[in-house]
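Weekly structure sync, notes
Attendees: PL, DS, HV (note-taker this week)

Item 1: Acetyltransferase (GNAT) domain-containing protein
DS walked through the input record. Source organism listed as Streptomyces zhaozhouensis. Sequence as pasted into the shared doc:
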Amino acid sequence: MNRPLPRVLSAGDAPLVADATQLLVDVFRHDPSWRRRYWYLRANGVRRKLRRYYARAMARSLAHGRVEAVVENGGVVAVALWEAPGTPRPWARRVRARLGRGGARGGAAGRRWHLEGIAVRESARGRGLGGVLLAHGLRSVDRHGAEAELEATTPGSQRLYERHGFVATTRRVSATRPREMDMVRPARTEG
Ligand SMILES: CC(C)(COP(=O)(O)OP(=O)(O)OC[C@H]1O[C@@H](n2cnc3c(N)ncnc32)[C@H](O)[C@@H]1OP(=O)(O)O)[C@@H](O)C(=O)NCCC(=O)NCCS
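Item 1 (cont.): predicted structure, written out as tokens:
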């Protein structure tokens, strides 16, 4: 099978970094969490907010974590933003607090690698790219002997994460709101 190899982006890869940031915005404007957060904005307003959010998230991962991407025909079709333990993320924490998700977890400020976002271009989904990207990032987490954490915003993505060893820790269910799930993957030693 022709499995794509994810590559690590650095700040020097400016066009790919811009492409990856745009992909995150394009994909996450459909995400239930963000839609709930910005229910009062029109599409353009949401895009502006997400551009700001993901530009900062990208900068954090470039500086303090890892940005991994699958590039096809010169464009980014999949991207994952990882933050190393201890990554400063005060602004993201404020947003989380506003979303009602608190800020009390060990989080990236603790001992875990935090998956801030993973996105596959819609036209490229279902080919296993999300799984390839996740596995690649987790191999690096495993090399550090560390735990990983993330927040699943859809049941579909939760299934994907479970297949890669994440376990749900906090369930939020309400009749009117989509379900979000904090998930943690225990540390593994390579062997
Ligand atoms: C979640 C996502 C990264 C998966 O990427 P992918 O390349 O389609 O995933 P793979 O082909 O490796 O695996 C497919 C699995 O992804 C999950 N998935 C979640 N949303 C999906 C979607 N819209 N399309 C296809 N698969 C999806 C499913 O678990 C699916 O497997 P299933 O057979 O159990 O349903 C991608 O669908 C995406 O970008 N979704 C929108 C953004 C998002 O939800 N990000 C995660 C937020 S927590």
